[in-house]
Design brief:
Layout (H helix, E strand, L loop, with lengths): L19 E8 L8 E4 L10 H5 L2 E3 L2 E5 L5 E4 L1 H14 L7 H14 L11 E10 L11 E11 L10 E6 L23 H9 L4 E5 L6 E5 L2 E7 L2 E5 L9 H12 L3 E5 L1 E2 H5 L3 E6 L3 E10 L2 E4 L7 H14 L10 E3 L10
Parallel strand pairs: 8-9, 8-16, 12-13
Antiparallel strand pairs: 1-2, 1-7, 3-6, 4-5, 4-6, 5-18, 6-7, 9-10, 10-11, 10-14, 11-12, 11-15, 15-16, 16-17
Bound molecules: pyridoxal-5'-phosphate and 2-OXO-4-methylpentanoic acid.
Length: 347
């Protein structure tokens, strides 16, 4: 497929192969050197690779967008670089230096420029992954690592964009436990959520809400997005306890809301608080802000705002998307303009 054949208005959150990918490698205990840009294609991998056998891998998710100013912009890429480093540390992998990470992301955006959707009609989703690709038999860090970055044009993560989603609280399954890997984007965190998510979808829900694994009382996350609720004009979001992914969208919305004068409380959010709130939404790079129309827990269903977008949810959405598309002033200095003429290090 060529970009000319894409119907930008029908984009979903799915994979379209683009032109180029980025690859760098490093040995355990070694130092990362800048990698190369190659045509997008299949990789060869040893069956004994650490990532294939023991899940030694992490990923990131970022978006490049064409702004209303005509720039191609990234949102806080240094935060993704730092989270990627924390994840690498947690999984015993050599962390990629921030400068190499950001330069690689920029090269991927510039090289795949023609796949960036027109302003306001989607984004180029950027997927950096770090895998233990060296062969290893014992359960130990792989001897070598591959940083790979690929990109794909995407539309909304949940069907319908800014339309309300119905969610189901799981009493049976958990995403993460204290001391585990829930606080980093370990690839192994995601497969265990697939079966619960499929079952929820079969029942008509968009996703599962996971509770804490110790007391089963507190909301942690919505699949692959962070949770917020609003009650009496106070904004609540689960505090970071190590089991919740520290979302960059989450942190940014806390800053935006406080800047607007809202009280934002990071605390344990009980199901009672969540289900007595006036508004609720989940957020993330892929999900942006997805307003929640209802939450079901056992026999109880809570409907928010008659399944319409709440006022504060809308206000936060407009500001976040406005900053992202350079139609709202970037008071926080978050937007990172990509130089599309930068040198691309082709293999
Ligand atoms: N929670 C989980 C489990 C995720 O995978 C993501 C996606 O990255 C998020 C939350 C949202 O994080 P961010 O806002 O940095 O994309
Ligand atoms: C993101 O929001 O970027 C994610 O990584 C979510 C999901 C697609 C795993």
């Amino acid at each position: 497929m060529s970009e000319a054949e894409i119907d930008w208005d029908s984009l979903t959150f799915s994979l379209t192969q683009t032109d180029f990918m980025y690859i760098a490698t490093c040995n355990l205990g070694g130092v990362w050197e800048p990698g190369k840009v190659l045509p997008y294609g299949k990789l060869e991998i040893d069956p004994a690779a650490g990532v294939l056998n023991y899940g030694q891998g992490i990923f990131e998710g970022m978006k490049a967008q064409r702004s209303a100013e005509g720039n191609v912009v990234l949102f806080r890429p240094e935060e993704n670089a730092r989270r990627f480093q924390r994840g690498a540390d947690r999984l015993g992998m050599p962390p990629v230096p921030e400068s190499i990470f950001i330069d690689a992301v920029e090269q991927m955006v510039a090289a795949n420029n023609r796949w960036i959707p027109p302003t306001g009609r989607g984004a180029l989703y950027i997927r950096p992954v770090l895998w233990g690709t060296g062969a290893i038999m014992g359960v130990a860090p792989a001897p070598s690592y591959t940083l790979c970055i690929f990109v794909t044009p995407v539309g909304p993560y949940f069907k319908g964009g800014l339309s309300c989603i119905d969610l189901l609280i799981s009493d049976e399954f958990h995403r993460a436990a204290p001391g585990g890997s829930g606080g980093v984007k370990a690839i192994g965190n995601y497969a265990p959520g697939m079966m619960p998510s499929i079952n929820a979808k079969k029942q008509g829900y968009a996703e599962v809400i996971y509770l804490d694994a110790e007391e089963h009382l507190y909301v942690e996350e919505v699949g692959a997005a962070n949770f917020f609720c609003i009650k009496d004009n106070v904004i609540y979001t689960p505090e970071l306890t190590g089991t919740i992914l520290p979302g960059i969208t989450r942190a940014s919305l806390i800053d935006i809301a406080r800047h607007k004068g809202y009280e934002v409380i990071e605390q344990k959010v009980s199901t009672e608080l969540a289900m007595s709130a006036d508004e609720a939404f989940c957020c993330g790079t892929a999900a942006v802000i997805s307003p929640i129309g209802s939450i079901t827990h056992g026999e109880t269903e809570k409907v928010y705002q008659n399944r319409t977008v709440g006022k504060i949810t809308r206000e936060l959405y407009d500001t976040l998307v406005g900053i992202n598309t350079e139609t709202v002033e970037d008071t926080f200095g978050w937007m990172h303009k990509v130089n599309l003429d930068l040198t691309i290090n082709h293999a």
